[in-house]
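Hi Prof. W.,

I finally got the Ion-translocating oxidoreductase complex subunit E prediction working! I wasn't sure whether to trim anything, so I left the full sequence exactly as given:
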Amino acid sequence: MSNFKTFSKGILEENPVLVMLLGTCPTLATTTLASTGVGMGLATTFVLVCSNIVISMLKRVIPKEVRLPCFIVVIAGFVTFVSFILQAYIPDLYDSLGIFLSLIVVNCIILGRAEMFASKNKVGASALDGLGMGLGFTLALFVIGSCREILGFGSWLGISFEDLLGFWPEPMLFFITPAGGFFVFGVVIAVVNLIMRAKNRKPKEKIGCEGCPHKAECTKQEGGCDAC
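And this is what came out:
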């Protein structure tokens, strides 16, 4: 698999949230605002890339019998580091993410990539895989968070449309509730499925002699295909 394929597959083709349906809990819990969704996505991306690199480096050292506990210890170390950084420099985001920041330790996306990819591949490929999956996760949270913030609060990234434009419809608070989160989540998944189907759709067969299943028999006749 090429480096570009390793990196890009997580953005759409194997998006961990919208295709593989992993990490649903933080996706729904932290996307009432686009900013918190991006914050969770970037924090997860950092942990994913760093843990993939370390696990790939230690894959021959870690005994298979205790690989999952070892993976969790590595991941927990990076989650603790991210928590300290956010608490010190971005306390508002730290408070917004709350317990879900600590729960990155047991995020299925990170554990899944550690088990399925990092523990079986080289360091460079593992880093690209973690970066691609992390960006795909961040993009999904950003899209869902943007939809919910625009519809539920009438703002985007903290910018009020009413203050900016002078008017804006009454926000629909439904979209910042758990039910609204599930609704937007389902709609975004449906759109991604449509994109994937269009991308994988086979081209139509050629019309005419080139696409005719009886071309071989026609060419034997006098006049060739023109006589068909």
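The mean pLDDT is 87. Does that look reasonable to you?

Thanks,
D.
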